[in-house]
Amino acid sequence: MLESVGALTGSPWIYAVIAVSILLDVFLPVLPSGVLVITAATAAAGSATATGAVPRSVPDILALVLCAATASVLGDLVAYRLAWRGGDRLDRVIARSRRLTRAQERLGEVLARGGGVLVVVARFAPAGRSVVSLGAGAAHRRVRDFLPWSVLAGLAWAGYSVALGYFGGQWLGATWLATAVSVGALFVAGAGAAYLVRRPAMRGQETGA
Q1: Is pLDDT above 50 for 51?
Q2: 5 inside domain
Q3: Which of 22, 46, 103, 189 is 20 to 30 A removed from 37 (C-alpha atoms)?
């Protein structure tokens, strides 16, 4: 598979596949978009190491970051707009989920204060992007409050994922070991992000008890 992805890295198809995967995983968080980004970056790093064409690999890596970040922001906006127009039906769905309700309330608080670090942190957490984008839309938060943080989150996530794959490929070669180590680091970041997202809510419950 790595060889196939490596061959696609030099063509526009790899970017199209990655973009579609990232666009859709805001609705289907089970899609392995992060794994795909890392695998493509690992293959690109292995190709550059084998051929010595490091300068040529740099635009490919930058294009991969921009592709992943752009698709992430577009997916966020699609979910945001759909949730904005969802009306009472979506409100009822959110009300039935304690997790979505807490996320929506907390997101409203941080955006109202002019902060949006939660949007960035949640991008790394499993399903965090979905919760934040849908919550912001359902709560009718202003797009100018949400969009800049979505852009920052997309760039941070894309840059981190590509860097993991690229440097893993540089150090360990374009092998499954490099991909596995890089994916493991992505999962560790996701677990840490999930903990940070939940921690303030847990504190609030303890304070209110």
Answers
A1: no
A2: no
A3: 103
- DSSP code of 31? S
> Could you tell me the CA-to-CA distances from 118 to 68, 177, 179, 199 in Å, in that order?
20, 32, 28, 12
pLDDT in tens, 75-107: 999 989 988 887 566 666 666 666 666 666 665
Give the three-class secondary structure for 174: coil
Q: Report the phi/psi class of residue 29: left, alpha or beta, with left for phi > 0 and alpha for psi in -120 to 50.
A: alpha
The structure tokens listed for 136 are 């912001």
pLDDT-derived band at 66, boundaries 50, 70, 90: very high
Q: Residue 183 burial (CB < 10 Å; 0-12/13-18/19+)?
A: buried
Please tell me which residue, 148 or 199, carries the higher pLDDT value. 148
Handedness of CA 177, 168, 159, 6 (dihedral sign): negative
Domain ranges, residue 104:
11-24+33-48+58-198
| CA dihedral sign of residues 58, 64, 69, 71 | positive
Structure tokens at 177: 């070991």
Distance CA 56, CA 108 (A): 44
Q: Is residue 190 part of a domain?
A: yes
Phi and psi torsions of 173, nearest 5°: 85, 170
Residue type at 1 in one-letter notation: M
Number of domains in the chain: 1
pLDDT at 144: 86
Supply φ then ψ for residue 11, to 5 degrees: -120, 165
